[in-house]
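WARN no homologs supplied; continuing
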Amino acid sequence: MLDNLTEHQRIIKRLGGIRKLSRLLGHRNASTVQGWFQRGQIPAAQMEKVLSAVSQVAA
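OK structure emitted
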């Protein structure tokens, strides 16, 4: 199932999905992360926050 996804979509999936990543990033709703997933790209300006979320999930 992960074969057809972009690298950024895989990151979102591995972090628990759209809603979980949204909560980790402090977003009020999941629509922002859902947009990233649909576009298959996480904005460069948000990557530092996403990488911080990775450390939260890994801990």
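The two ends are 26 Å apart (CA to CA).
OK
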